[in-house]
Amino acid sequence: MADTGIIPAQLIHIDHLTKRFTTAAGEMVALRDADLRVGAGEFVCLIGASGCGKSTLLRIIAGFETATEGQVLISNRPVTAPGPDRGMVFQDYGLFPWLSVRANIAFGPAARGLPRRQVAEIADRFIAMVGLAKFADAFPHQLSGGMKQRVAIARVLANDARVVLMDEPFGALDAMTRERLQDELLELWQATGLTVIFVTHSIEEALCLADRVVVMSPGPGRIAADVPILLDRPRDVSSLAFNEQRRLLAGMLHAHHQKVVA
Amino acid sequence: MTAPAQARNRALLATAIPVVCLLAWWLGTRDNPYSLIPPPRDVAVALWDLAFGGIYDDAFSGTLATHLLASASRVYGAFLLAALFALPLGMLIGHLRLARDLLDPMFQLLRPVPVTAWLPLSMIIFGIGPTAAFFLVALGAFYPILVNTVFGVRSVEPRLFEAAAMLGVRPAAMFPKVVLPAAMPGIFTGLRLGLGFAWVVIVVGEMTGVQTGLGAMIMDARQLSRTEIVIAGMIVIGIAGYLSDRAVQALGARLLRWSPQHG
Q1: Which of A52, A106, A127, A196 lies at a C-alpha separation of 20 to 30 Å from A253?
Q2: Closest Cα partner for A194 from A126, A111, A104, A100?
Q3: Residue B101: inside a domain, yes or no?
Q4: Is A8 within a domain?
Q5: What domain count does chain A have?
């Protein structure tokens, strides 16, 4: 093969990743032989039906679970445990209920032992970035779902994470809040040059956000397709091109679904 | 409804049943010289005499403060002692598998044994006197604190460990950074129940071989058939326990402002 030898800088290398669980019913393959490259600054969405291994893949990248075979490299270093270079945003927020908004956002920098003044500066900057200055001293139980998720995002950004892993982060929010948070996330992404891996089961959400959509299929979970999304930003959900892409992706998801059912 | 009106309504509701009971007590004992239960008025007079003296001028007159102080110092002292043992033990049992396997079965077996059953043994071990009483009260407070601390430590949401890990908290630092703060509501519930239990156990603890204390006072009065003093003592214990619980609750509402159940 006539390779030019120019390989773009890839931040995340996922090689032959397989995850098997042993359950009472026998062995279950959650993820089989997944290969994926993600470049620095890319926004990648993982999409698929439940059981396709998209969350498992994300949790292995985060270091919460270990792969049975294969490995994940970040900047050529294998992932062995959770670390502050990879921030996770959970669907159920995972905020520390005993800490105020400010203290939640300052948690990472404070845990790293940065000087108090610097921690306060970082906290203030990211509180402002997600527009929660008025709620800085509120506790999580006093916030709406959208506000909680803003805190969770700010907490990860304040901790200097280069890779943000998002596990259906807006799945529990109402449609209006969801759209607003999608827009805010894109603004943050464009402003900061972060690398984002975003798990969703909504085709529209994936198309609004992603540079690339990775389609996964269940039984066993695997990567079925890797589709670059070349639509202009900001994306217009009512445009013809958008809907064509949507039809294409729906077809892919549907085809795999039918195979499983058959 | 306005807030003061609501508060007034609630106060009215809270006093309704006690007032009915008081009325029934009064009706049942009035004009009955052979009643073994003294009428409310006698109890009120006895309470006054206990607190300030000047009515009967007997061995009980004006001794309330002494007894109350003796009981309260035993309750709080024994409570602190119980907390001193129960909190670290509970954290160990909740957090470490080995401690759980080693200690939990034993405490589960010992826990159903009532404090009263310990009375004879504690008098043999500690001798007849205030030490045995102190031990029994501490024992009564120990289990609620232990059980709730274990529960608090064990019921930390697993998600919080993941969140802390991805923010850079090392496994060794999980206990102070995540487990302890997350377990605070459970621990606090345990402390509150433990203190309440200490007030319950104090009379049993002071039943034998103790000179002062509300329990001793009640036992003395019982032997002299001074039932109005027995009832007065019961009322004082009730009020003291109630006030002590309210103080702890107020403290909890301040410290656990973040918790929807407490704040």
Answers
A1: A196
A2: A126
A3: yes
A4: no
A5: 1
Query: Total structural domains in chain B?
Result: 1
Q: How far is it, in rounded angstroms, from Cα B123 to Cα B133?
A: 9
**Tell me, what DSSP letter sits at residue A133?**
G
Instruction: Note the helical H segments in chain B.
Output: 3-29, 40-52, 64-95, 97-110, 115-126, 130-154, 158-166, 174, 180-205, 214-223, 227-255
Domain of A151 in residue numbering reads as 95-161
Q: Count Cα neighbours of B3 within 13 Å in the Cβ-side half-sphere.
A: 0
Does A134 map to a domain? yes
Q: What predicted TM-score, i.e. pTM, was given to this entire model?
A: 0.87
Q: Give the domain CATH number at B127.
A: 1.10.3720.10
What b-and-e string marks burial along B79-90, b requiring 16 or more CB atoms within 10 Å of the CB? bebbbeebbebb
**Residue of A60, A98, A137 to mutate, testing the B interface (most B Cβ within 10 Å of its Cβ):** A98
Domain interval for residue B222: 63-255
Residue A4 banded pLDDT, cuts 50, 70, 90: very low
Question: Does A54 touch chain B if contact means CB atoms closer than 8 Å?
Answer: no
Q: Which two tokens stand for residue A40?
A: 């620095």
**Which residues from A are below 8 Å from B188, CB to CB?**
none
In angstroms, the separation between the Cα of residue A83 and the nearest Cα of chain B is 5
**pLDDT, tens digit, 9 for 90 and up, residues A24-81:** 888 889 999 999 999 999 999 999 988 899 999 999 999 999 999 999 999 999 999 9
d(CA A152, CA B7): 39
Contact criterion met (CB below 8 Å) for A53 and A221: yes
Say if A113 is an interface residue toward chain B (CB within 8 Å).
Answer: no
Q: What angle do CA B114, B119, B120 make, to 5 degrees?
A: 125
Question: Is B134 among the domain residues?
Answer: yes
